[in-house]
Amino acid sequence: MAKVQKFDAYDAITSQIIEAIEAGVAPWRQPWAGGSGCSALPLRSTGEPYRGINILALWIAAQRTGFSSPYWMTYRQAQELGGNVRKGEKSTTVVKYGTFERANKETGEDEQIPYLKAYRVFNADQCDGLPDRYAVEDRSQDEYGAASVEELEAFFAATGAKVSHGGSVASYDMIADRVQMPPIEAFISSAHYYSTLAHEVVHWTGHKSRLDRFKKFETKAGYAFEELIAEIGTCFVGAQIGIEPTTEESAAYIEHWLKSLREDNHLIFKAASAAQKAADFVLESAAGQPEQLQRGVA
C-alpha cells in the first residue's frame, strides 16, 4: 500500500509564492481597487482581516482567479450564512497558528508547543445565496496626481518618523534615524510618492529603538531579506490606508528571493510575520488619525 504523503503547509504556500514571482507577479503587488482581487485586505466571513502569510496566500488566489470579493469562508461557514459553495469550486489553503501544552520529559513542567494547522476557504465569489453584505461594490482607482493628500500627510506625521525632502534618492538613514525623500513634485503621481514613503517608514520601524530588526540582517542576504520585509510591509500598511504600492522590485532582489524561498520554505512566513509587526507598529503609531484612513482614501 502506497504511503500517504503528509501535507506540508509551509511547502504549499511557499510553492504558490515562487510560482507567482516566476510568472512576474509578486503576490504583494495587489491592485486593491479596480481589476481582480480588489479588496484592501482579505476578510474572514465575520469581517475580521486576515494577517501575515494568509494575506499573501489569499492575494495570490485572487490574482490567479480574478476574485473581486474580499470575503473568504469555510464550506461550513457559507452554509451557516444561508449560502453554499458552488459545485466544482476549488478551495484555497490558509493556516492557523496556535499552541498546546505538553509536559517536558526532563523537567515535568508544562510547556507551550507551537503548531501550524492548514484549513481551506472559499471566496464569496464562489458561493451562492450569501447575505447582501457580501456583495461586491464597484470601485475604481482614482489617481491623485503629484500633489499632497492632507489625510496621508497627517497619518505619516503621526507615526513620528522624521522625514526630509530633497535630492533624487528615497532612503532610510539608520544612523541619523531619518527618512530621505525626493519632493512630491518629482513623482508621477501621489500614489507613487506615498507608496515609496510607506516603504521607507517600514524600514524605519527596524531601528534599535523600535523593533530592533537590523542587527539580524547584517549580511548581503540579510539586507535583501529586509527589503522583502519592507516590500510586504508597505502593502500591509497601504491596504489599511488606501495606498496601492507602485515601486518595482529590482531583478537582483527577485533572484535572491527565489533562491532563498527554494532553500527555506519557512522564509516567506518569517518575512510576512516581520512585515506584519512593522505594519502594526506604523498603524499603531498613527492610531489617532482620521477614521477615513482605515477605510482607504484612494
TrEMBL record:
Q: Which GO terms describe its molecular function?
A: single-stranded DNA binding
Domain Polyvalent protein metallopeptidase stretches: 150-273
> Locate the N-terminal domain: which residues?
8-122
Span-the-membrane segments of this chain are none
Pfam families per record: ArdcN, MPTase-PolyVal
Origin: domain of life: Bacteria
Protein name stated in the entry? Antirestriction protein ArdC
Organism of origin is Epibacterium ulvae
